[in-house]
Amino acid sequence: MSASVSLAESARRVVQQLQDAGFIAYYAGGCVRDQLMGVEPHDYDIATNAHPEQVQNLFRRTIAVGAHFGVIIVLQDDFEFQVATFRNDGQYIDGRRPESVSFATPEEDATRRDFTINGLFFDPIAGKLIDYVGGQQDLAKKMLRAIGNPYDRLREDRLRLLRAVRFGATLCFDLDGATWRAVCENARHIHEVSAERIREELVKIFLSPKRVRGFDLLDESGLMAAVLPEIEALKGCEQPPQFHPEGDVFVHTRIMLGLLPTQVSVPLVLSVLFHDIGKPGTYAVDPDGRIRFSGHDKLGAEMTEALMSRLRFSRAEIDATVEAVANHMVFKDVQQMRVAKLKRFLARPHMEDELELHRVDCTSSHGMLDNYEYLKAKREEFANEPLIPPPLITGRELIALGLKPGPRFAEILEAVQSRQLEGTLKTSEEALEWVKNDWLGEGGENS
User: Which residues form the Poly A polymerase head domain (predicted)?
Assistant: First the structure.
């Protein structure tokens, strides 16, 4: 295998080998669309009239991952390519995959696909585009259109509801009228799709730089209410106008999405979406008429845990997002923190994302960034040494002083660390002397 061979050249070799053996073979789907739009494909799917067993016989290294559906993985150079036999799909009974398939012509294969822009073929050997569905014209018009009857296409695979939103958002394409009506009228059926597949589409939508358009399409189609009812509930949840002149919590959340940088992590964008989902459940009005959301951060963290678990996010993504939601109100108190507490706060593993959440939270509402600037300045101030340096003493030294292991150990070690972080204890000898005097000696605070 040669690492110098590019993905595109390796894909071309697969097509060449199929054609040299007397078969029809084309690039298919998204890679053709991307090439026509001037975007370098990140993978290449290949469609052929060779049957699965013929593909396996032709290539030395293959994986029969979907032979029942005519799909074989071909390992070429350092890459994997999905090679699929042109097919017709049988009846869809579960809103996901056909009960059976039959091998077919290229034209029949094109017409079973979801949207016209994904129904294109390209012959890289002849340099020829093959378009049976009008995809090239829709690409030129920036139009997302279902192939054939949109209700049929969406009934076959309910995930196409979210794929329509994703393509409409990420490509900045309009959805043609019939396709859009079909999406809206079928939004409630999205729950026929597994939580994992829903999650994957949502992540692609919200990681896109066009995430606000994705948010709007999810909202307008009814898919937001179906898959993220916690966000739908933010509509009409009014906020104190002196801190949130921008409007209700739903509007506030949408504005924050638009303030994020192009590249974001999953926990960051989800913490923006979910940081205030506890507000409707904690909404209250004081006797003086002021709106309050006491404890919305705690409730929001619990709701975020439940929501992300429902959508089968990874434990690491859940933990990072929940922590950001739970701590987003702590930022208002950072200038009053003692040095030790501030250093521990800044040393948490996802602080970069949490700082960005705080920045867009403030920018989208009252506009005051004093705490954000304070934390940035403190990070620079503390940059010359580790925020949490190696401990001056450990439990071993406490045992040597005659202490028995137990809860008091953690209390003493935390107290020592706090003074180390604040600079009042600098050596192990000083730390041990302080423990002897303040924790073990006569008259000490814990004697």
Answer: 25-145
